[in-house]
Amino acid sequence: VHVIQVRLTCLRLNALPGFVMCFQDTLFPYIKDNIKEYLRTHWEEEECQRDVGLLRKQALEDSSLDGVVPIPLESGNGEEELERVIQAVVDNVRWQMALDRKTTALKQLQGHMWRAAYATGHVKGEVFEDVVPAIRKWREAGMKIYIYSSGSVEAQKLLFGYSTEGDILELFDGHFDTKIGPKVESESYRRIAESIGCATNNILFLTDVPREANAAEEADTHVAVVIRPGNAGLTDDEKSYYSLISSFTELFLPSST
Do 106 and 145 sit in the same domain of this protein? Predict the structure, then answer.
C-alpha cells in the first residue's frame, strides 16, 4: 500500500470506492426484483410511458442482436394485453442488464426506479466511515471533488443524496457519467479535465477497476486503486504496478492553494 503524494487541484472519484452498497450487489438486483411491480404501479404516469417508449425504440435498434426482446405497442385491449406488454418490458430490461448494456433507455428507467426506492427509504447509500471526514478535509485544503461513474448522474445524486450519512451532495463539485465517454477510454478523462478546467496531470483518479486506471493513466492522470471489501481481486502485476489504498485516510493531498 502506498501513500499518494502529488500536487493536485482536482480529485476525481469513481462513485463506488467509498460506498459499501454498490450497483452490482444492491442496486441492480433491486431493479431485477422490483421492475414488474414498479411498471404496474406507475404505468399510467407520463414519465413511465416515456421510459417505456425509449426502451421500445432501443429494442428496435437492437433487432439484429441475439436474444433481444421486442416491446409491442398497446392497442388498449384490456388487462391481458397490458400484462404481455409489461412482461416484454421486464424481459427486455433483464436482457440488457445481463449483457451489462449502458443504453440511455435502460439507465433512465433504472434512475427513476432508484429515485422512488430512495425516496421511500427502501434503499440507502451506505458510506465507509473514512469517506466523509476525508472528503471534508480535502475540500478544506482547496481540492475540488468530482464523481465519474457508469451509473447515471441522476443515480449518483440519489446515492449521495440518500446516504447513511444523510445528504452529502454538497461535498461534490460535479458529476460525470458515460455520456462524457466510456470509463475505459483515455479520451474520456481528457474531456472531463477540459470540462472542469483542470490539467490532467493535476488530477487524481480513484477507482477499483484496473482497466479504468489504465485509461486514466494514458491521459496523464494520477491514479490510485482502492481496495475495498467485495471488490474484484487484482493480479500480482496490478498490485505491484498501481498505488493501492484501502482507506481514504491513506491519501496525503497537499493544499492546492
Answer: no
pLDDT for residue 16 is more than 60: no
Separation in Å, CA 226 to CA 1, 114, 117, 148: 10, 25, 28, 15
Residue 33 and residue 60 in contact, taking contact as beta carbons nearer than 8 Å? no
Please enumerate in sequence order all residues whose Cβ is within 8 A of that of 248, keeping only pairs 6 or more positions apart, or say none: 18, 128, 130, 131, 134, 135
* Strongest mean pLDDT among 54-63, 148-157, 247-256: 54-63
Identify the domain boundary among 120, 145, 160: 120
Grid coordinates of 1: 500500500
Q: What is the mean pLDDT of residues 141-150?
A: 88
| Grid cell in block for residue 251 | 491519501
Asked if residues 200 and 219 have their Cβ atoms less than 8 Å apart, the reply is yes
Which positions ≥6 away from 216 have C-beta within 8 Å? 186, 189, 205, 207, 223
* Calpha distance 85→147 (Å, rounded): 36
* Residue 189 scores a pLDDT above 70: yes
Q: Which three cell numbers stand for residue 14?
A: 469513481
Q: What is the number of domains present in the chain? A: 2
